[in-house]
Hints:
This protein is mainly alpha-helical. Helix content is 54%, strand content 4%. It has a three-stranded antiparallel sheet with strand order 1-2-3. Strand 1 and strand 2 form a beta hairpin. Helix 2 packs across helix 3 and helix 6 packs across helix 11. It is globular, with a radius of gyration of 21 Å. The protein starts with a helix and ends in a 15-residue tail after the last helix.
Amino acid sequence: xxxxxxxxxxxxxxxxxxxxxxxxxxxxxxxxxxxxxxxxxxxxxxxxxxxxxxxxxxxxxxxxxxxxxxxxxxxxxxxxxxxxxxxxxxxxxxxxxxxxxxxxxxxxxxxxxxxxxxxxxxxxxxxxxxxxxxxxxxxxxxxxxxxxxxxxxxxxxxxxxxxxxxxxxxxxxxxxxxxxxxxxxxxxxxxxxxxxxxxxxxxxxxxxxxxxxxxxxxxxxxxxxxxxxxxxxxxxxxxxxxxxxxxxxxxxxxxxxxxxxxxxxxxxxxxxxxxxxxxxxxxxxxxxxxxxxxxxxxxx
Length: 300
């Protein structure tokens, strides 16, 4: 990941979140040094660049060191969520790490292989990983969901996204909708966290989810990251012709939006576009015998 791209996207997100101008200036000043450090190592945001940046504020005041550490932590957290789609009109050549990623079709096949390893009775795992693979939620967003966030009448989830912004996500996938309604009916409490640790009322931890997914990947003999589930969903939407503005709204990704252009869609328009894409996709992916992929197995 190129440092200057990561910093620019992070500052754009802070600006969209309404952060104060003084905060933006301070973070921009601090992170410009990170970009300079990265330039010495080919421009990549890597361990060497971060090490140089962390050595930079030595001898400064405690407040200055704290602010510069805070700006770096915020940037690294942001990097976990960015960038799923190229910035409009600014597609850069992939770096070595991106070049090693499998093509979309291969990735989808590997994801399907992992889902086939999840036992049928593990409803929680099917639903949780399905929210990432078919609705494009981030792991942190799925784990933060509460029972009250699902509105069955409109088949939608209210998702608490990055920067505290809540967004509405249509549960357009029929299998996910059925799993979600059945899970709420038979497993979840009337209120509180949607996903809890076994035998406890505390929210499920990210480390536990990551460990479970790694186990299924090992059984399937593939290496698929949790972030690849969301990335594959975005690729499906892009290849399916869904408007970029709707995709960004659905996944909560503001970075790279067209500057000076304000494009908005009503809930009805967004739902119509997503459902039209879903119908086209189902028509292509449904086999002649009527069966579906393993990640979309029928539920009771």
